[in-house]
């Protein structure tokens, strides 16, 4: 039986396959945002997956949304899909209507100062490495005040200064500076620390799912190449040395997908979810330093060229593994929790 | 992604988690009573008749076998929980390990009613143990290159040849011997059959092969005109290869493929907690990375147990678990060395140093037994259609 969830995945995959071409990805790196592709995704309701239908979303669950993000990663889609979906979830969960404007999100900020006055709020501070600000109208970010209160801010980007930057895959990651930026009260919504933590971990998992998808893609490309490319009169995949490398890559991609899916299915229980997400991000980020060199080694010189699409995935993997915290960052937290507990490790798992 | 690599996520049910707590409480009680010392590689090296019989009493040996043969008719997932808890605790489970994991399921699938009635209830009690009789001096990774043969003379079979690297044969009762019952042709996987051989029968001699640690676990087992009746043939004559390979997914995906050095990890954490300088970023990061890998391997292995429970093919993903799991077992050793300044010693007063020594000295075996890493990777390569 084909479920409606399966149909969603198949339809999305088909659309990405047709539309998210090498040329589209290259163009985006040159600053051309894929508007038509984006509008198509939007009109299909892909940007509001996980938002209930009675809140104007397309229904489905967050699990389905994370599965879609894996597809986005497996096509190196140069679009703020994770950012839009997660921003939409926050609005709905805080009881706000879905916005008509385009949003990007940030969970990395330094010393953002928030002052309330009679007509609204004044923001001072910097948001670092914000994805796709050129395309977005607003920046959505949870911010903790000096008094320890959490607020979800919606900051119109035209009221800020943006310093352009990008990751090594050419995806925009800009600095957004607020200098006495004044926003109104409806753009500052109080949130619980638990909700803020959920936002952070959903953002983290979004990137993690994309990494799992991209890992799957470099495996598929490497297998294909090993079967097609002939040397010494036979496909290179016939050589033990190549077979062994591909088997290692297969193990890395498969295990990455298992732990990513495991984290995505843990969304029901919050604490368990956060732990599983940190573990998934750590494990997958760590795997990339083994997986990417294998994919490049198998592809050899052609995979090192701009012409071949391999780099669209490997450069993303190199970027994404460090975004929102590398394996060192999250492993430290996991290890600190383990070592500061009075329980044995086995009793903590 | 290739269909054979799809691994749907399985989560433990509430009742399974409750069962896990029951097993854990039992182990804790036994640990407190001093029944065993946690050890690395306890499924190879921890032979204890007493412990196996204790587990038999709990109904935790052969627990997936039907009740009519002394089992509990439980799921593979429950068995998974028992094996995982035992290995994590470093409990001495070597005696019944093969009978529970391989021989029982083999007999259930292919054995005669007589064989099932005779062996399964005793396996479940934890009192009858089996060895694996596959490798031969000239048939290691090239497993089908088997020369041990059984020839029919009047109403009996005469078995001649030898098996090597047989863990625990000197302590166990029976061996499932894979041997030729027809002349070898170019198709070397054909003409092989499986027999149940009593390791105390006339004509069986067992020679110890001492490990590099000085321990005695391995043996070479010789068969000289050992008489076997038709009753001891498992399944069909000539189908031995297929029958034996069917169980490999169980063998390769289980928690014994990534928990062999787990007791060292647990002890390492205990030592780090007691030390003043434990709160270093380096220690946190390295422990965190190990935990992330451990959790990932557990999710994979458990998902495969679920697939096997549903009779779904899982041999390819099982090979991946073994390869990744063996790497993890070795990473624990190297991380331990980097985090805690000490020298491994099998005779140390420190439990940590003893476990480190044991793990290190047993480590070459991890990536050899149950299919070498190279063979596993070849299997994966073949599965990818290369």
Automatic annotation (TrEMBL), chain A:
Domain Acyl-CoA dehydrogenase/oxidase C-terminal: 206-336
EC numbers for this chain: 1.3.8.7
Enzyme superclass (EC): oxidoreductase
Cofactor(s) needed for function: FAD
Matching InterPro entries: AcylCo_DH-like_C, AcylCo_DH/oxidase_C, AcylCoA_DH/ox_N, AcylCoA_DH/ox_N_sf, AcylCoA_DH/oxidase_NM_dom_sf
TM regions (residue ranges): none
Any one GO molecular function term: medium-chain fatty acyl-CoA dehydrogenase activity
Keywords of the record: FAD, Flavoprotein, Oxidoreductase
Domain Acyl-CoA dehydrogenase/oxidase N-terminal: residue ranges: 5-80
PANTHER family: ACYL-COA DEHYDROGENASE, ACYL-COA DEHYDROGENASE FADE28
Family from the record: Belongs to the acyl-CoA dehydrogenase family.
Name this protein carries in UniProt: Acyl-CoA dehydrogenase
The species this protein was found in: Geomicrobium sediminis
UniProtKB/TrEMBL annotation, chain B:
Required co-factors: FAD
Domain Acyl-CoA oxidase/dehydrogenase middle: 132-226
UniProt cross-references to Pfam families, sorted A to Z: Acyl-CoA_dh_1, Acyl-CoA_dh_M, Acyl-CoA_dh_N
Domain Acyl-CoA dehydrogenase/oxidase C-terminal, chain residue ranges per copy: 238-384
Domain Acyl-CoA dehydrogenase/oxidase N-terminal: 17-127
Domain of life the protein comes from: Bacteria
InterPro entries documented for this protein: Acyl-CoA_Oxase/DH_mid-dom, Acyl-CoA_Oxase/DH_mid-dom_sf, AcylCo_DH/oxidase_C, AcylCoA_DH/ox_N, AcylCoA_DH/ox_N_sf, AcylCoA_DH/oxidase_NM_dom_sf, Mycobact_Acyl-CoA_DH
Protein name as it appears in the record: Alkylation response protein AidB-like acyl-CoA dehydrogenase
């Amino acid at each position: 039986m084909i479920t409606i969830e399966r149909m969603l995945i198949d339809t999305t995959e088909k659309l990405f396959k047709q539309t998210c071409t090498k040329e589209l990805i290259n163009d985006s790196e040159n600053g051309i945002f894929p508007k038509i592709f984006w509008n198509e995704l939007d009109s299909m309701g892909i940007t509001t997956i996980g938002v209930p239908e009675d809140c104007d979303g397309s229904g489905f669950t967050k699990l389905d949304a994370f599965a879609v993000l894996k597809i986005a990663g497996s096509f190196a889609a140069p679009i703020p899909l994770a950012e839009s979906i997660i921003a939409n979830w926050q609005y709905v969960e805080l009881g706000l209507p879905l916005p008509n404007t385009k949003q990007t999100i940030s969970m990395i900020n330094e010393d953002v100062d928030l002052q309330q006055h009679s007509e609204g709020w004044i923001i001072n501070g910097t948001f670092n490495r914000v994805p796709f600000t050129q395309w977005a109208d607003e920046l959505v970010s949870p911010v903790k005040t000096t008094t320890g209160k959490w607020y979800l801010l919606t900051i119109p980007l035209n009221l800020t200064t943006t310093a352009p930057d990008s990751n090594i895959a050419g995806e925009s990651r800009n600095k957004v500076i607020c200098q006495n930026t004044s926003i109104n009260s409806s753009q500052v919504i109080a949130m619980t620390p638990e909700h803020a933590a959920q936002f952070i971990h959903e953002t983290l998992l979004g990137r993690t799912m994309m990494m799992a998808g991209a890992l799957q893609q470099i495996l598929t490309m490497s297998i294909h190449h090993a079967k097609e490319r002939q040397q010494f009169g036979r496909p290179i995949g016939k050589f033990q040395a190549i077979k062994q490398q591909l088997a290692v890559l297969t193990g890395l991609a498969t295990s990455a997908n298992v732990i990513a899916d495991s984290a995505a299915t843990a969304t029901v229980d919050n604490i368990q979810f956060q732990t599983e997400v940190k573990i998934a991000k750590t494990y997958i980020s760590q795997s990339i330093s083994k997986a990417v060199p294998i994919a490049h080694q198998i592809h050899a010189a052609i995979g090192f060229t701009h012409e071949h699409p391999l780099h669209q995935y490997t450069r993303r993997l190199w970027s994404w593994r460090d975004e929102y915290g590398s394996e060192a960052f999250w492993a430290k937290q996991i290890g600190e929790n383990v070592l500061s507990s009075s329980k044995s490790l086995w009793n903590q798992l | 992604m290739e269909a054979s690599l799809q691994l749907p996520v399985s989560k433990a049910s509430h009742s399974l988690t409750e069962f896990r707590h029951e097993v854990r409480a039992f182990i804790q009680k036994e640990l407190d009573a001093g029944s065993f010392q946690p050890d690395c590689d306890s499924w190879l090296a921890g032979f204890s008749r007493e412990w196996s019989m204790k587990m038999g009493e709990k109904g935790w040996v052969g627990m997936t076998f039907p009740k009519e043969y002394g089992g509990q008719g439980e799921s593979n997932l429950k068995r998974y929980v028992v094996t995982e808890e035992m290995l994590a605790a470093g409990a001495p489970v070597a005696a019944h390990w093969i009978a529970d994991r391989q021989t029982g399921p083999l007999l259930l699938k292919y054995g005669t009613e007589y064989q099932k009635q005779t062996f399964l209830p005793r396996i479940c009690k934890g009192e009858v143990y089996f060895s694996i009789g596959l490798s031969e001096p000239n048939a290691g990774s090239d497993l089908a290159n088997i020369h041990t043969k059984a020839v029919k003379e009047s109403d009996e079979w005469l078995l001649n040849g030898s098996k090597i690297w047989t863990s625990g044969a000197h302590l166990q009762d029976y061996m499932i011997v894979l041997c030729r019952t027809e002349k070898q042709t170019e198709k070397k996987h054909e003409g092989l059959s499986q027999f149940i051989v009593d390791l105390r029968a006339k004509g069986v001699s067992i020679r110890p092969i001492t490990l590099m640690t000085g321990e005695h676990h391995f043996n070479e087992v010789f068969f000289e005109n050992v008489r076997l009746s038709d009753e001891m043939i498992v399944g069909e004559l000539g189908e031995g290869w297929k029958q034996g390979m069917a169980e490999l997914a169980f063998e390769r995906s289980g928690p014994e493929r990534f928990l062999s050095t787990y007791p060292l990890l647990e002890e390492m954490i205990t030592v780090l907690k007691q030390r003043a300088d434990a709160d270093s970023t380096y220690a946190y990061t390295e422990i965190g990375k190990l935990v992330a890998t451990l959790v990932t391997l557990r999710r994979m292995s458990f998902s495969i147990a679920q697939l096997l429970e549903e009779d779904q093919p899982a041999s390819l993903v099982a090979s991946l678990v073994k390869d990744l799991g063996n790497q993890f077992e070795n990473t624990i050793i190297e991380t331990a060395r980097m985090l805690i300044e000490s020298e491994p010693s099998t005779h140390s007063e420190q439990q940590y140093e003893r476990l480190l020594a044991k793990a290190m000295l047993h480590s070459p075996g991890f990536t050899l037994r149950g299919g070498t890493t190279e063979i596993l990777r070849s299997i994966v390569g073949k599965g990818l259609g290369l």
